[in-house]
Write a structure and sequence with these properties.
By secondary structure, this protein is of the alpha/beta class. It has a domain at 111-241: Up-down Bundle (Glutathione S-transferase Yfyf (Class Pi), Chain A, domain 2), CATH 1.20.1050. 43% of the residues lie in helices and 18% in strands. It contains ten helices and 13 strands. Strands 6-10-11-1-12-13 form a six-stranded mixed β-sheet, sandwiched between helices. Helix 5 packs across helix 9 (243-263).
Length: 330
């Protein structure tokens, strides 16, 4: 447990712990925004069975990543060695925000747990950019890449959602949420929200929408339009959920994320960034019980709170550290 006043570096500590996961801030900050005032860059070393180091030079805006002292020619090759999940009040945007928030959630998680996902996602994004600018026979070539890579993305997303939808519902119930909670994957195929998923289906959809897309300058079908639907009593939480229900769903998503990483064989680091701050007493107690159970199961817990009393007693006695102006002491 790390205790300290707001603005003294608790979130920065968690940010540093997990920067080596996908080599960017978990809260979406740009690398240059993470550099300490007056400094020219930063370097972060993480020991997790292997040594992962990342350095950023603010003058050149260059990033360098090494694994066990060996520089990685592609940063993507080092993704997934460090793994962890953060529970934070800002997670409510996962549920209340636009579909792109949930797509990013899926992309980060699947990049860490599904072999080849990062490569497919990179190919898809590059081809998507080129298709909107291409003409003539070049369009066919880029659509073929979109279909191949997009089918891989679709398969991974659908498989994950089917595997973890029941766990999501269990987490919502464990948090005290009444009513039936559900999660499902809704791909954008051009034939409504569903339809057959595969390379041929996406290729046909791209051909069918090509003329209209040329007019708008955007690609209207494909994984970049997908949605991870979160519902309660068959109503979208994004539109009809209360603030408390949306926060419960966000916590469930994060806990499922951590469970998925644990199932893939990775040591599980669960970080609580003032996670209890905006919850009502009933949900604080329920979340505390869930965290305590995970700690007993061997999960590593790092809790950052403004004061000791913010952490429920049920979580147990964690080693205590203090943080003041960025300096940590036992």
């Amino acid at each position: 447990m790390v205790v300290g006043p707001n603005g003294h570096g608790k979130t920065n500590l968690i940010e540093a712990l997990l920067y080596g996961e996908v080599f960017r801030s978990f809260r979406g900050a740009a690398d240059r925004e993470m550099v300490r005032f007056g400094e020219d860059g930063f370097r972060i070393d993480v020991e997790c069975g292997r040594t992962v180091a990342a350095g950023y030079d603010a003058r050149t805006r260059q990033k360098r990543v090494t694994v066990d002292g060996v520089e990685q020619p592609r940063i993507a090759d080092a993704i997934g060695i460090v793994r962890g999940v953060v529970l934070s009040p800002r997670d409510v945007e996962l549920v209340a925000g636009e579909p792109r928030e949930r797509r990013r959630y899926l992309d980060v998680l699947l990049a860490l747990t599904v072999h080849g996902y990062v490569h497919a996602l990179g190919r898809y994004r590059r081809a998507l950019l080129h298709r909107s600018r291409a003409a003539g026979p070049d369009v066919d070539a880029f659509e073929q890449v979109l279909a191949e890579a997009g089918a891989t993305i679709w398969t991974a997303r659908q498989t994950w959602a089917q595997r973890w939808s029941a766990s999501y519902a269990v987490c919502c119930e464990a948090m005290g949420e009444a009513g039936a909670s559900a999660m499902d994957f809704a791909p954008r195929t051009g034939n409504g929200a569903g339809g057959h998923l595969g390379e041929s289906a996406l290729r046909e959809a791209l051909e069918r929408t090509r003329a209209a897309d040329r007019t708008t300058g955007r690609t209207s079908v494909g994984p970049h339009r997908d949605e991870l639907r979160l519902v309660r009593e068959d109503r979208l939480l994004r539109h009809y959920g209360s603030a408390g229900q949306q926060r419960t769903a966000a916590i469930a998503l994060r806990l499922v994320e951590a469970e998925a990483m644990a199932e893939s064989g990775a040591p599980t680091l669960l970080c609580l960034d003032d996670a209890f701050a905006v919850l009502v007493e009933r949900r604080v107690r329920r979340l505390g019980e869930l965290i305590a159970a995970k700690a007993k199961a061997g999960w590593q817990i790092v809790a950052a709170v403004p004061k000791d009393s913010d952490l429920p007693d049920v979580v147990g006695a964690l080693p205590r550290w203090s943080i003041d102006s960025g300096r940590i002491t036992a």
